[in-house]
Automatic annotation (TrEMBL):
The chain crosses the membrane at residues 6-29, 36-52. It comes from Hymenobacter saemangeumensis. This is DUF6576 domain-containing protein. It is found in: Membrane. The keyword Transmembrane helix applies. Residues 102-126 are annotated as: Disordered.
Amino acid sequence: MIGASAAVTAIIVAAATLLPDYTFMLILLGPVKIKWIAAVVVLLSIAGISGSNIGGNLAHLAGALLGFVFIKQLKAGRDLGRPVQAVGSWFSNLFNRRPAMRASSTRRPEPVVTAATGAGPARKPVNQQLQDEIDLILDKISRSGYESLSKEEKQKLFKASQQ
């Protein structure tokens, strides 16, 4: 809990920087724009610097500065929170070791048959027919999930995975 008020000050100033005209309905005061709430919070921290909690008020001002800079950088296209998110994701992945599942297709484009070559429609090789069936099953999984497959489709998929 110690130091949380500096983080709250950062959030108030960041919100006021992002949406300065956003209005809150405060009890006894009525509608107040967030920019005025942020200004009062910052002014109270400045006024408290000469008091007994100098470190706390300096922390509030540092939080206010951080909130302001964060939003200005975000508007400029630089997300200062990205490294923090990357560290969080790394720790999350460290404890949740699930292999990333990927479905890939080895389908190759069929050769183009023109009337000039004189070749008629050729039958697909057995391997290509099997691959087409597997591709259709994988498409069904991506649309409806594994549980939507029939028993035969599951068996075909299993047999193809053993090859």
